[in-house]
Amino acid sequence: MAAIPRSADVASPQAALADMSVSARRLNRWIGLVVIGLILAPLLAVAGGAAWLRTIAVAEGRARLAEVLAMTAHHTDTVFQVNGEIARQVALAAEDLGAEALRLDARLHGRLSEMAARHAHVTAIAVTDRDGRVLVHSGAFPAPDEARLVLPDLAGLVAGGWQAVALTPPRHDPVAGVVAFGLAVPRFEAGRVAGAVVVETATDYLQHAYGGLAPVSDFVVGWIDRKGWVLSRRPRLDEPVRLDRATGHLRALAAGATEGQFEETSPIDGVRRLFAWRELAHWPVVVMVGGGRSGLATAHDRVALAFGLALLGAAGAIGALAFALRRAAGRHAALVECVIEADAARRKAEDRLHQAQKLEAVGLLTGGVAHDFNNLLAILMGCTESLQARHPDDRALRETTDMMIVTIERGARLTADLLSFARKQMLFPVACDVSRQIAGSRTLLAKAAGEANQLVFDLAPVPLPVRVDPAHLDACLINLVSNAHDVIERDGRIVVRTRLRVIGPEEAADGLAPGEYAVIDVEDNGRGMPREVAARAFEPFFTTKALGRGTGLGLAMVYGFAQQSGGTALIESQPGRGTRVSVLLPVTKDALPAMPPRLERPPERLAVHVLLVDDDPTVRHVMAESLKSLGATVSEAADAAEARARIAAELPGLLVTDVVMPGDMNGYELAAWARRGGRRLPVLLISGFAGSQLPETLADAEGIAFLPKPIARADLAAAIAGLLKQQGDAPNGAAAQGQPAPA
Ligand SMILES: Nc1ncnc2c1ncn2[C@@H]1O[C@H](COP(=O)(O)OP(=O)(O)OP(=O)(O)O)[C@@H](O)[C@H]1O
Ligand SMILES: [Mg+2]
Description:
Layout: H1 13-93, H2 99-103, H3 106-118, E1 124-129, E2 134-137, H4 154-159, E3 166-173, E4 178-189, E5 192-202, H5 205-210, E6 220-225, E7 230-234, H6 248-254, E8 259-265, E9 272-279, E10 285-292, H7 293-296, H8 298-390, H9 395-421, E11 430-433, H10 434-440, H11 442-449, E12 454-458, E13 465-468, H12 470-487, E14 493-503, E15 515-524, H13 531-536, H14 554-564, E16 568-574, E17 578-586, E18 609-613, H15 617-629, E19 633-637, H16 640-650, E20 654-658, H17 667-674, E21 683-687, H18 696-699, E22 704-708, H19 713-729, H20 733-736
Helix pairs in contact: 1-8, 8-9, 8-15, 9-14, 11-12, 12-14
Bound molecules: adenosine-5'-triphosphate and magnesium ion (MG).
């Protein structure tokens, strides 16, 4: 046989729900962490990687600049070597020729033109006298009279020896028509300096030579002399420019360096660049190359930007996904919590229903038993009393019968409590103020509380009108106060409080309709009840008292009374701290009477004709005997049909009828029938089992009274006397006696 899984192996649904709630919250937290991780980790990686790549890119850019510098330096060296060589050859060719001979030397001019044409960097070659007047020029023959060039200090050049050369700063060459710088060597006549040979290169030469070259962005290349004059540059210059002494390389040169790198914002075009420079070994010229610092890493930056954007997009997508996930997880958690709450509420409601059903079932049983028991007690009471009446002088019999009557009365109280719990007690509700009613019972309650305990009344200052049976309300309070008395060990304090409580639609549990309720709290500082005791305290016969000490009917009566009056009773208790039992009674709109009604003392003898209706012949017989012993004349009927016939025939002065009867009418209906059309036939209803409260039509009517079985003779006499007194007080009281029976 396959094994059946044991329920213990399966977690309870509540535990599973609680588990789900915890895991949903945990999931939510995890999603948050994972998302932060998913976004943060790549972001940090990319940022770190980007920074690293950028350093690499800048280093690569620097290396590239260094390469370009080396290349350019080599090229420049060649250019200056060529220019120097040309200058020296021309100086040799022109040596010892007079100024006028030179001016007319077409051959020399042709040679200069040819030399200049052969070298792209040579813009012009000129031979001058000591003052710079142009004697021969590669660009024109004969040279224009007025053409002059600015010469360097020739004496200084001579001192430098045959190899000595000097650079002339960029100037406008009037013959060539361009701005150019020159390389000058001295020219001799008979051993004396007679002028100079100048080989010129246009300042925009580098623009032509390097125009298409762009190894880095914002690329710049230039030749600069020791004084800071920019001899040639790419990008080209429109005007000759002399750099400030503070420029990076000039400062370094002054400090003795011959090469280096520096970063500076160019005073020429305002672009920030990284520069590499070197002074040529044989020429007083600095070669400089530069590139935009950001440009050095531009490509890399673009890649990084693209990555960043892609990452941002991915982060956004992940964020959106996580948001959706977290929302879903949050909803899931909320749902689970909702289910848990609903489940708890359902279980509470189930518990309450179960409790109510249990009390109902017990009530049904006890109600039935009490009813039959009451009938038996009624017979016993009647018989005992008639026995006593028949032998008034037998003392021994009197003692025994008195004991019997006391016992019967105890039995009657017990059944009354049972009926109360079963909500089958006959109640005579009247409109009364709860606080006033309680104030009227102070002495009774003080007795129940006991002398050792402090009894405090905290009564609402405003009237709390309710419709209850005052006698039962008293009994109820006495039960509660004596319970408190029984659980107090020392320094007892019992508080009886009244207050108003409004129950809204959302609170309307426990079968209570929404509305206003008068609440009576009986609070003590006794030992309190454990949960399991509180859960069962309203059950009849539930007691924690020793055998024979408690019936367990006190709270059952309170509960039944409260329920029957349209309210309920609640227990709040903390073991070791105390207990509060609250009785909730619906507030009524009925006007409060000035004074509660009181019963009159019975007269000596009753001179009235009574029609007695009861289906139980024994009960009827006993009752009839009692009535007769009080002086009444009695005729009997077994059911309502017979009763109606007798009422019509005999015109009785009082109708005494059982409530529960077989046949076409019960006692209430018979009473209503007998009092139709405003007839005021007094009616005494008797029952061991009322079934419910008096019907609306009879509840407050004058001339109607109720007695629960078993009935002591004195109570019977008092009740009838009360009815007859009311009858006599009434303006048409006389007419009631012997009135014609209704049709
Ligand atoms: N104020 C209270 N403090 C603590 N426990 C209480 C209190 N009132 C009632 N109880 C508990 O509830 C049980 C039932 O109370 P209930 O009044 O119905 O019967 P009882 O007091 O035991 O018997 P009886 O009322 O006949 O003396 C009590 O036995 C007691 O355990
Ligand atoms: Mg009690």
